[in-house]
Specification:
- By secondary structure, this protein is mainly beta.
- The protein folds into two domains: about 35 residues, no CATH class; about 100 residues, Immunoglobulin-like.
- About 5% of the residues lie in helices and about 50% in strands.
- The protein contains one helix and 15 strands.
- It starts with a strand and ends in a 12-residue tail after the last strand.
């Protein structure tokens, strides 16, 4: 049990219903007579919007954050935020690209051709989705000369 100057913190928290902004390290607590009256729709942001790989094999870690508004009986609005990328659905299109479906890490094989190639990453959560475009440079054309 936690006590602060004779006050039982666990008892106080048990009488409260609105705790927000925990992800930022700030905790805001409101009295228990304030209740949730509704939720906004989820939105999700995938970053970066575009990424270009060199022609060699490699990988890059994309990041996504989902959020929605929470509406309270006192007229205030707070954010519900999800940044646990294992909860999202990840997919990618494009030749040579693959994605780890648990965390958004994109892998690319070396591009043997001289033409650049591209793909599209899609991340989804609770009906919301966002996309990013990935590119990969083509390999430099090798011209071989020989003595005649």
């Amino acid at each position: 049990m936690i006590h602060v100057q004779g006050i039982d913190i666990a008892d106080i928290v048990s009488k409260l219903s609105k705790v927000t902004d925990v992800y930022s390290g700030n905790i805001h607590i409101w009295p228990s007579d304030i209740k949730v009256v509704g939720y906004g729709e989820w939105s999700i942001i995938l970053t970066p919007e575009t990424y270009t790989f060199p022609s060699t094999a490699g990988q890059y870690d994309f990041t996504a954050v989902a959020s929605r508004d929470i509406y309270w009986s006192d007229g205030s609005t707070t954010k519900d935020t999800v940044a646990d990328e294992t909860l999202f659905t990840w997919s990618i299109t494009g030749d040579g690209f693959s994605i780890n479906e648990n965390n958004g890490v994109v892998n690319i094989t070396a591009n043997p051709g001289t033409t650049a190639r591209s793909g599209v990453i899609t991340v989804s959560y609770e009906g919301a989705s966002d996309t990013s475009t990935v590119y990969q440079d083509g390999s430099e054309e090798v011209i071989e000369y020989s003595d005649w």
